[in-house]
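Design request, tokens follow.
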């Protein structure tokens, strides 16, 4: 198993351009609820905000909170799109998409339950107010 780790890391790094394209396409797709896009954008902006839950000058932990918030934002956006929409916008191999979503799920899983609740409250059931509401 340890001999596969470098291959998986390589696949994940090589998937970054496809992930960026996927995110841009999901943000532009009218089928993805607007609230999901706003929440994902806010999560991305959090990385550049001068105020953090854990200050960046604290080694390791200062960067981990950024990664967790970004993972939650990505997970929230991807879950707001149908599986068909995600696959339509993904340019890379299917198994790499699965790897990417597993990594995002893992990162989001590190977040405290309360933070998951914040994301869910910001985008209540999307269908209640239409596809962009």
């Amino acid at each position: 198993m340890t001999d596969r780790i470098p291959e998986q890391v390589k696949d994940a790094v090589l998937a970054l351009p496809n992930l960026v394209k996927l995110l841009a396409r999901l943000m532009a797709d009218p089928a993805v609820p607007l609230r999901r896009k706003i929440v994902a954008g806010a999560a991305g902006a959090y990385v550049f905000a001068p105020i953090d839950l854990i200050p960046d000058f604290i080694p390791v932990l200062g960067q981990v909170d950024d990664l967790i918030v970004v993972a939650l934002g990505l997970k929230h956006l991807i879950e707001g799109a149908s599986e068909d929409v995600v696959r339509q916008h993904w340019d890379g191999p299917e198994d790499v998409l699965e790897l990417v979503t597993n990594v995002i799920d893992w990162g989001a899983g590190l977040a405290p339950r309360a933070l998951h609740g914040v994301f869910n409250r910001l985008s209540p059931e999307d269908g209640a107010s239409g596809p962009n509401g």
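Comment from the thread starter after seeing the answer: thanks! Residues 6 and 129 are 45 Å apart (CA to CA).
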